[in-house]
Design brief:
By secondary structure, the chain is α+β, with helices and mostly antiparallel strands. It has 5 helices and 7 strands.
Length: 219
């Protein structure tokens, strides 16, 4: 659990304002990444505070710059940069802990926050709300041309999700979905091209018939 930088009181998940001393905290970068401020005011605008974002440089392999709001501590990443940050922050994940993933998402899910669409810091057009990684539980704001905005605390959520094997789970489920779609297309093609197709057959029976037919053709 993160602690307030001012009074050391525990901070609730996904909340950066201390309930005891009312100080805002940089929960995503403070104590996690070494960084320096490269530009105090960039041309990009915070979608919540409507003030210029500052450009910060993270000390990773090579130069890595992102934008941050110094008031609400939200972060703006160019496309592909969140994946780079996560890859450099969380390594050697080999197991999927479903129980922990569910616990992390349940603990950090903000029930009382209403749906709010915000403008892209670059083009100022309303961004789309998407579930990062399809199943991470973190709803980010994405501009298809310029990048992704994450509110304070959401990068920490994504790090915990990846450490618990969330990204591995997403890859495995994607493979299963892809295989299922491929099987469905094969069945539909067979149904369409086979004059002797029996519509009463269930999908498993149909697949068995297809396998049997292939075996007979090549045996």
């Amino acid at each position: 659990m993160a602690l307030c930088n001012a009074c050391s009181a525990p901070l609730a998940p996904n909340i950066n304002r201390c309930l005891y001393c009312n100080v805002r905290n940089d929960v995503d970068l403070h104590g996690k990444h070494k960084y320096s401020v490269a530009t105090q005011q960039s041309e990009r605008i915070c979608p919540h505070c409507d003030t210029p974002l500052q450009t910060i440089k993270l000390k990773m392999q090579g130069d890595f710059h992102i934008e941050r709001c110094k008031t609400c501590f939200g972060l703006f990443f160019d496309l592909g940069e969140i994946e780079t940050l996560l890859d450099n922050s969380v390594t050697n994940v080999a197991d999927i802990n479903l129980k922990l993933i569910k616990s992390i998402n349940k603990d950090r899910y903000q029930k009382h926050h209403g749906v709010k669409y915000v403008k892209c810091p670059c083009c100022r057009i309303l961004m789309n709300r998407v579930n990062f990684g399809h199943r991470s539980g973190v709803i980010v704001d994405k501009c298809s041309k310029h990048g992704i905005w994450v509110d304070s605390g959401e990068i920490t959520h994504l790090m915990e999700w990846k450490k618990a094997g969330g990204e591995l789970l997403n890859v495995e489920q994607h493979k299963q979905d892809k295989q299922k779609a491929k099987t469905t297309r094969s069945v539909k093609t067979y149904q369409k091209n086979n004059d002797y197709f029996n519509p009463s057959l269930s999908e498993p029976d149909l697949l068995e018939n297809i396998s049997s037919l292939i075996f007979k053709l090549f045996s």
